[in-house]
Amino acid sequence: LNLLKRMDVLINLQAFDQTKKSGFPKKARKFHFLDPFIYHTIFYWLKREGYLNSIENFQNSSLIEGLVASNCHRFGKTFYFKGQGEIDIIWLKENLIQALEVKWSNQIKSNDLKMLKQFKNSTILGKSLNEGYIDHIKSIPVYKFLYSMK
């Protein structure tokens, strides 16, 4: 994994420590591919070799989460948050903490958003083309978020 990180193939997200505003070095990490092409290539190779027989279809939600994480990683520090639930991405940019939950489905349950309410600056990034609020949490399309990044 270290070789793939050094080659800029993978990014790793440490669990976020709210007190220190940094990662927990010894806790479990999440990994995402920086490039969707590499994700596709490895996924289909593993499937062809029989390592992913139980997975029927390509996981779009994982790919989209990886796209968002890798783009955030280019402009700041990225983590994930694990408590009683999980937040996909904690983005630390210029001392501003933004909690991002990627929901690539047609239906979002309010129960899935409990953890986001712990952060002042939370956003749901979704498949829907509509903007709005879900349980008082801002919701925008993934493409709009990615387009607006600077």
UniProtKB/TrEMBL annotation:
<protein>
    <recommendedName>
        <fullName>DUF4143 domain-containing protein</fullName>
    </recommendedName>
</protein>
